[in-house]
Amino acid sequence: MEPVPGKLHDWKGDIGIEFPGGRKDSSRWDMQFLYVPHTDKPLPLDPLAPEWNKIPSIRMNNWFIQKSSGVKPVDGGYPGDLDAGFQIAWDKNNLYLRIECKDDKFILTGPARRRKSINGSDPMLYMNDGCVELYLDTGANGRSNTFKGFDQDDYRYDFYAGSAAATDGQGTVYRLREVYHQLAGGIIMATKDEAAKGVKCQFHRDGNNYSYVIILPQWYIEPLKLEKGWRAGFGLYIHDNDDPARDWPGKGLSLATEPGAHCDRRPDLWPVMVLE
Predict the structure, then answer these.
(1) Which of 131, 162, 166, 194 has CB 3.0 to 4.6 Å from 190, enough for a Cys bridge?
(2) Domain annotation covers residue 27
(3) Tens of pLDDT along 33-64?
(4) What is the domain count for the chain?
(5) Does residue 249 lie in a domain region?
(6) What CATH number does the domain containing 267 carry?
(7) Closest by alpha carbon to 137, among 54, 60, 33, 213?
(8) Cβ(64)–Cβ(255) below 8 Å
(9) Strands 272-275 and 24-36, sheet pairing
């Protein structure tokens, strides 16, 4: 298939294998993939920089609505609820990502509303409207795993605005899940605190419009290699909360390949990105 950046490609079909001795096996394959363009010059951290205009955008339109027993689902997915797209590129040093959102009701949460987990180790950015979850399956093996869930070569990074008054400023970064340390430097693998400082995030807001630029250096996505032809699972989820009184968002836009599915703990549903 001809590589076309800025598009989610679909591949569906039956795969059949015949083994020596006559035994046959078959399965149904249903996946999406995207080509990530190479950039000759580093892309800026500024979400409004014109250099980003050269990178094609992919729209997100898969809605996840939380369904819990005894709890009425929130209203979501209607026209104008949340429109979002992303741009992604790479060079030998960094993976570059820009996310642009237009929300009909954007609630920028201040520090007083930002929670931490019981042991204080998790800032729980995902409790906030506009939080972005980024997933990387560095070996692109999520679909071939025999179980549904994270394995030892998967990352999850969460991103949010740095302050309640943010219009432009440094965003908050938290590595919620990391690969097995022996795959990423062993005992010298970056800690969560080091990753929070080394991965760059810039947040911009103009009313109900907001955007992020995220720059992930090679060191913080090991063993993924920034080289032509490398494949990795790539997932995104953007939280949406329309009610200031609600403690957590009950809906969001998902890049999962299954309609209505979340990306969390489902590397088998992340599209595969191919570095071009």
Answers:
(1) 194
(2) no
(3) 999 999 999 999 999 999 999 999 999 999 99
(4) 1
(5) yes
(6) 2.60.40.1190
(7) 33
(8) no
(9) parallel
Is the per-residue pLDDT at 1 higher than 70? Answer: no
User: Contact, 60 vs 253, CB < 8 A?
Assistant: yes
Residue 46 lies in a domain: yes
Looking at per-residue pLDDT, the higher value among 83 and 165 belongs to: 83
pTM listed for this prediction: 0.93
Neighbouring-strand partners of residue 240: 251
User: Whose structure tokens read 């010298």?
Assistant: 188
Query: What's the DSSP call for residue 26?
Result: E
> Mean of the per-residue pLDDT values for the chain?
93
E strands within 70-199? Answer: 82-90, 94-103, 132-137, 154-160, 168-170, 172-177
Which is it for the CA torsion 19, 21, 22, 26, positive or negative?
Answer: negative
In a domain, 26, yes or no: no
Beta bridge partners of 182: none
Q: For 237-270, how does the pLDDT look when each residue is reduced to its tens digit (9 = 90+)? A: 999 999 988 888 999 999 999 999 999 999 999 9
Q: Which pLDDT belongs to residue 156? A: 98
Q: State the virtual CA torsion across 266, 269, 273, 274 in degrees, nearest 10.
A: 110
Q: Is the separation of the CB atoms in 227 and 275 below 8 Å?
A: yes
Helix residue ranges, H only, 18-145: none
Domain that includes residue 68, residue range: 34-275
Please give the Cα distance from 72 to 67 (Å, whole number). 8
